[in-house]
């Protein structure tokens, strides 16, 4: 077999392998997980924004993580839920959808890591400079660091996906479906 470049803009999705008998329980379980993720994270964001005593730097960073979790779950789980009832041989995704989902999944992971870096910096300042903590970790500083985390993540993932999209899509054809 020789390596061939595909000119098609359709990809086969080989992710979740669910038998027809277990598709309903898998769908219900994934739906419950998705609802739990959404309710808990949105509830946390609402709680932090409503309660004035929680407007501290670490809680605002928790709010950042919750918004990112809602974004990440909304990127991945709805597609899995839609593919549960489709037979594996008929699961297709356009190349543009694949690129968008890859961008969103990588962005979610990158934002999670950059916000964790900011949380580590917050704890470092709180432990090493406890008397200057309030002067260093102001609301403006937390907002600036949060915007930085989201912006740098968007830039880095944009470069990553932009460079990956330019590559040719190749595959070894071992099966006779094509």
From TrEMBL:
Cell compartments where the protein resides: Membrane
Pfam families: 7tm_4
Recorded topology in the membrane: Multi-pass membrane protein
Any single GO BP term: G protein-coupled receptor signaling pathway
GO CC, one annotated term: membrane
Molecular-function GO terms, alphabetical: odorant binding; olfactory receptor activity
Protein name, as recorded: Olfactory receptor 5B17-like
Source taxonomy: Eukaryota, Metazoa, Chordata, Craniata, Vertebrata
Gene designation: LOC104947234
